[in-house]
Amino acid sequence: MTHPLLRSEPLRAWQFEDLRDSPDDGYRYEIFDGTLLVTPPPPMPHFTTLYRLRRALEAQAPSDFVVGENLGVLRRDGTSYFIPDLVIFDVDLLGGSMAALPPAAAQLVVEVVSPSNPSNDLVLKRAGYAMVGVAEYWIVEPGAREILVLTQPGPAGYDVEEKHTGMMSGAMPFPYQLDLAKIFA
Question: Residue ranges of the Putative restriction endonuclease domain (predicted)?
Fold first, then answer.
């Protein structure tokens, strides 16, 4: 039996509609500029960091924001589609008929770097999120116990980057303060 996502010869670049028949097998199916990316479910340390970060952000989020997981961000032409570990967006978008968030609706995307595929978050998604115009991208590195905050996206990447260790605070997408020692405990 042939896997539904395998094609003997690509007829064109991968697009979002090609993922509609993807199997519910626990793997994450994403597209970067027409190329299919398949990643396994995260290991427990990745999940633990993500869980702690989400709870800390949710506790500080105003009621008009959603701090969510497993919702994709889709470029308008369908050739780039990412599923960030966390995404923050306006609560008014809940219940809509969108298959995924447009990049402008993602107030913040967060990826926790996994040791098995760090280049996805550090290189591919960094370029991809900037390319589609996601305003703010956090790269969470549990091994280094730091969060890299990237802002001001452009065609050549993000123009501003700040590394945070210890305490971290900011005003966007809402005022927050994080004790990274508790996130990386």
Answer: 17-175
CB 142 within 8 A of CB 115: no
pLDDT per residue over 120-173, tens digit each?
Answer: 889 999 999 999 999 999 999 999 999 999 999 998 999 999 999 999 999 999
Six-digit token string for 114: 């996994």
CA dihedral 141, 168, 28, 10 (to 10 degrees): -80
- pTM for the predicted model, two decimal places: 0.90
Q: Which residues contact 170 (CB under 8 A, 6 or more apart)?
A: 149, 176
- Nearest-CA neighbor of 69 among 39, 32, 112, 35? 112
Q: Is 85 helix (H, G, I), strand (E, B) or coil?
A: coil
77-97 residue pLDDT tens: 888 999 999 999 999 999 888
Q: How many CB atoms lie within 10 A of CB 63?
A: 6
Token pair 């780039």 is found at: 80
Contact 29, 64 (CB under 8 A): no
Q: Which domains does the chain have, with CATH numbers?
A: 42-183 (3.90.1570.10)
Q: How would you classify the pairing of strands 136-141 and 146-154?
A: antiparallel
Q: How many CA atoms lie within 13 A of 84 on its CB side?
A: 30
